[in-house]
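To assess whether the prediction recovers the assembly geometry, we first specified each molecular entity separately, as shown.
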Amino acid sequence: MNRIALNLAIGAAALVTVSAMTGAWVKSAGARYDAAAAAKAGKEAAAVASASDEKYCSPALETILRRVLTSCGLVKQGEGAKSSSRGCQPVEAKSVAAMSAGDFNALFLPMAQRAAIIQFDKDKADLDAAARALLDKSFADQRGASFFLVVSRASPEGSVAHNRELSEKRANTVLEHLRARFSDPDLEKEVGLLWLGEEFAQLDKTFCTWARSREGECDARALNRSAFIAWIDCHL
Amino acid sequence: MESTGRVFLVGVLVFALAGAAFAAVSSSDFVAHLDRQVHAISCSYAPGAGGLDETGSSGCYTALMSPFSSVLRAQTWGGIPIALPGLALFAYLFFIALYFSAAPQAFDRHSSRFLVLATLLPVGASAYYLYVSVSIIGAVCKLCVGMYVASGGVFLFSVFAHLGARRARFFVQEVPWGRYAGLFAEGVLFVAVPVALYLALKPLPAAADTQCGSLMYPEDKYGVMVRVNRAPGGRAAIEVIDPLCPACAAFAGRLGGTEYLSSLDIRGVMFPLDKECNWMVPQTVHPGACAVSEAVLCAGNAKAKDVLAWAFAENEKVRTAAKNDPQAGYAAVKKAFPDLSDCLGGAEVKSRLNKSLRWAVSNALPVSTPQLFVDGRRLCEEDTDLGLEYALRTLMELPAALGRDAPAASSPAAQAPKPADGKRPKAK
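The predicted structure of the complete assembly is given in tokenized form:
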């Protein structure tokens, strides 16, 4: 074999080897690429970011919440929804008023770790430093919750009308503080106010063990000079 | 014609074959990723034997995913791997060494000089890539080291062969330019054919395939975005980041290595994969990420980039510390940035971090990091490494459909990411 033939033979063998390897690798990758593209539609999607929905969100609780929040203007109920309403009394929240006080409070029992009780002085609706701190802490701990419920009450001293008005003031004081403290564009859609006055679902001493803004004072009267606050981790 | 130098051709053959083996494994690993999936790669001084890296923690993986592993990355997905012409070059050196061994009459001082000159190319390339590995990438890959050593070996033995050939009894006096040209042309052919074949056969994602969904609500109504990269007049981009996510740190490094960074005005949204604050993760993936995310938000536009750079550099250390002590994340960040101490852990920053997460909820984003949106269009997860330049160029050539802070067009909800069948999750 002359030099040129030898050169060509060896060169061709080496070049064909390298080219064949390259071709095989690329074709194999191409086949996998096509297979992956074809299988894409049938594959399960990765988890998608979503609001939380905890176990305590029973159908009964969700029904009540939906009715409260709809009546309170937080959840739209179609064309006729009142978008400007802010807060409500139980009488406006259909079916809530029909519940027994015990059943109503029982709905919130699973939220012991998420809820707090903001306490007020007698016949007052001002937040003290401890109340502000607890409110800030609770509101900042939103996690995946969609709604922040404020359920305000008054102790039985005074007239029913006065206490209804007082509990409404307490609920609004909480809302005003949140507006001032947190520049949250969703605030109006998140915070639901329900003022109960002295008329409905007074808290019993069971709730003394819950997070409260005042440590020592916990008789039933003091406990109901309050606003019960909680983020609700339920999809509605 | 006889030459004492021919005996050294055996050394050239051995080192060329070794170099070809290292380059072949490296090329094969690179080409495997053209399917846009995740694969284990070889990382061993014995090419092809063991040393599989399935976690992406080896120097080989870092080098493979760096912008230096291939050229023309913006023009074709992944670019042309440097190892492929390397393989062709070693194969060529093997071929001419074998040819000179088999045809003694073809081996004289002139052809041996050509051999020396030809081996200078892998030596020069090895010197450059060794510098890049040590000084820029900060990782040395075993396969690359194999190629560096092989390059040195072929050079050394070709020099010995040349010195021996100079003592041959007979040699051509005149410089044989025609022979040089022929040998050079063969070298060009050796490189051109495999590269052309690679380009002709490789899969190339269509422009539409480089976009994986879009943002429904790109506006920052919560004021939770922080400036990650300032590029006045550049394309508006949003990056979803977990500051303690190694994949985010690696992505930041890769993005920083592209020419496109200067054209992207990037704002970051914190999305820590830490159960302490993120209800969407069933288990904490990156302990301490909530605390560090708070630090990024506390730092604001002025210093967020510094905090992120620190977090990316220290992510493993902070995660390890926070694994057993949830407060360790706060302690680490307070030590590094004492001026943020008053803000950290406060109600306001916790609320802002929560709103960051809720921004992700409102856009129905996949629970993963990192994610990059250019003008509201999501860069596919598969394109965040080798295909980054190509995908970015493709995305940036699209018209700016979604303006900065403008309400989104009626785009569909963010699609789920394309499936990745690989063994290694993107976010670690």
